[in-house]
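**Sequence, structure tokens**
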Amino acid sequence: MEETEKSKPKSKEKSTFVIWAEFIPFFILYKFVRILPLKVAYFLSRQLFKILFILDKRHRTRAIQHLIHAGVAKDHEEALGIAWQSYRHFSMLLIESFKMDQHLDVDKIPCKGSESAIKDVCDPILNEGNRNINVIIVTAHYGNWELAGPTWVKKFGIPMVSIMRPFANPLIGKYILRNRETGGHSCVPKSGGIRGMLKALRNGSTVAILADQHASRNEGVETIFFGQPCRTHASPAMLHLKTGVPIMPEITRRCGDNFDFEIVAGDLIRYTPTGDKEKDIQTITQMYTTELEKLISEDPSQWLWAHRRWLNINRKHK
């Protein structure tokens, strides 16, 4: 945990011209998608991503390699099929992000998963009206992760705070955040995010962290994911040790092609500290990494396989 990577040079801020040059076509696409029927928008996006899948050899090849490396696909042919499905799901997420406020109906989104999560979190809130329950949600770039925050707030009635990276284009970011930040859901910048999340937890809010992508040495610890070494963000483990609030691994899984989803939770994590902080952080981080792996394994096609997740494949700097 003490070791740090060489700091990367900060990217230059975009000029006003570049910001508007990027925003105008985005705005046209955004407005166009919003007036389309959902099925038509899905269809057009899939056709676009079919072309992208063919042309984008680098990410297509990487996804295939990762699927075989993780033992999810037995050969190239099977990996190619899952890789395309992963692209297809991402094409749908794009449409859903633009049309979230038009189609999101939280009453249609069931909660399922481990007995501990349903019994101790979901049922007491939904059936008993207990709004004094908060958790640290650890989720993944799976299904439609953009729905996680708005769905939780609307369905459970408990405020949520999640970490976000600043948008390179603030004008585009404004439109994306319009649907992401709704009601009691707010986002805090990654820089200094731990302090904001500690405050949120102590105020009774839920916090959500995407913890399925590669972390730098100063942000994560080494874990095993699908049988291979990786480095995972340790902030959920640190928050748990500081507050005692349980960790709930969770994904928002897509069910079909009609804006239907389900919240699927893994086993709640409640850990008793041993006094060895570094060991405790590593143990807890491995626990939620393993739970996310279990959830992803149920339908691996909905995860982003092109991401360079592991330390022993497609990574020059570890």
About this structure: The longest strand covers residues 247-254. The mean pLDDT is 91. The chain has one domain: 16-302. The longest helix spans residues 76-98.
